[in-house]
Amino acid sequence: MSESTESPVLSSGFVALIGQPNVGKSTLMNAILEVKVAITTAKPQTTRNRILGVQTFAGKGQICFVDTPGIHRSKKRLNRALTDKALRSLQEVDLVCHIVDAPKIVAWQKKNRAAGLPPAERFVMERLAERDVEAVLAVNKIDLVEDKLKLLPLIENLTETNDYLDVVPLSALTGENQSKLVEVLLERLPEQGMLFPEEMLTDRAERFLAAEFVREKIMEQTQREVPYSVAVEVETFRDNEDRDLLEISAVIHVERESQKGILIGKKGRRIKAIGKAAREELETFFGKQVYIETTVRVEPRWSENPRFLSRFDYE
Ligand SMILES: Nc1nc2c(ncn2[C@@H]2O[C@H](COP(=O)(O)OP(=O)(O)O)[C@@H](O)[C@H]2O)c(=O)[nH]1
Ligand SMILES: [Mg+2]
To answer: Does residue 30's CB lie within 6 angstroms of at least one atom of ligand 1?
Structure first.
């Protein structure tokens, strides 16, 4: 048997996307998948679950991303559960992709006239170092760093604590250098053939994705504590083939009566706007007309309630 007739074994494996809240983990995963499976907003702590996103690169391999909640220090039960969830995923993957927000760190250094890292970033670095995992560093949002010369000293600061296999500056928003990251990840993953069928996108059910799109619209359209006091559950997800329509009903749980008032808004205007924005997003995703009905329900202090947290797979 000559070796030249054998096709090469493709690389594949699980890559955890980890980092502080709001550094662009979900945006990066969606960009590489070319589909939005994880919701993203300008607010921190948008992601609350581990979400698998699979992309197959023909002839090269398959990357199975594990998008995670942001790692941060907090006293709140929900936030601690989310950080724990992210840290646990470190142990369950082949490779870690640590993402940092370049312009944010540069701004912090300028403000503090310091060359080190912000405490919140050091917190993530230390958690990584403790676990002794193989990691690649993705220095994100370089589209917002005007002076590209600032990137070199920044990368030096970032690589002082941990030994990264590779460092890739990139932008998840513009796509700059994204293919370089893909290349680097594929190189580092084991040669073990495909783990999932080529058309596999995520392990999350349609019901979960629908609830997440609704939560994204709420997070975008509300302020202060309200985005963090909301949990969304899809009760009905019915494909009405006669009418070629997806029928969805969602319950929006809030913690207080006042939050219910805010969500519904004057003459129901806000909930209507949320429903409309969610419907448009769902129609794009499912490629089908959607009818969506929402109900707002008060569930006092759900974010401190272990039973509720596990029902939503937050804890
Ligand atoms: N300018 C810029 N914004 C980005 C980039 N990547 C993510 N963002 C924005 O950063 C915010 C947080 O992104 P998200 O993916 O939700 O962050 P996550 O909490 O780490 O998952 C969103 O407003 C994104 O649009 C980037 O490369 N450049
Ligand atoms: Mg996220």
So the answer is: no
